[in-house]
Amino acid sequence: LSRFYNILAKILTGLPISDITTGFKLYRLEKVLDIVIENDGFGLHVELPIKAYFRGATFLEIPVHYRKSPKESTLRYRKQFFSYMNPVFWGFFQRLKRIFAFASSKQ
After folding, report:
1. Cα–Cα separations (whole angstroms), residue 20 to 70, 71, 83, 102, 105
2. pTM
3. Distance (Å, rounded) from C-alpha 10 to C-alpha 50?
4. What is the pLDDT of residues 40-94, one digit of tens each?
5. How far does Cα 99 stand from its chain's mean position?
6. Dihedral, CA atoms, 56, 58, 63, 64, nearest 10 degrees?
7. Is 27 left (phi over 0), alpha (psi -120 to 50) or beta?
């Protein structure tokens, strides 16, 4: 599920990273200082990089390799669905606005 979500998020937002859901991220303070975060759940890990990207942030990705845990995951996908998808939909609409603004400026 995570792999599918990451691919979908990358396609819809244009975000140039392959694992948006990882919690291991560093940010330049000036890129994120005044970003309004609406998520209070796991979706924060998705919302912040998407909003930073549309403010001009660039990314350097160092892959994180996880080992499968013998414990059951505590993440409840149904419960977290909107906290993960709302930032992606927001990013998709930002991307569409950029595309159409660019296309209309060419005419």
Report:
1. 24, 23, 13, 26, 31
2. 0.81
3. 10
4. 877 888 999 999 999 999 988 888 877 777 887 666 767 778 888 999 999 999 9
5. 19
6. -50
7. beta
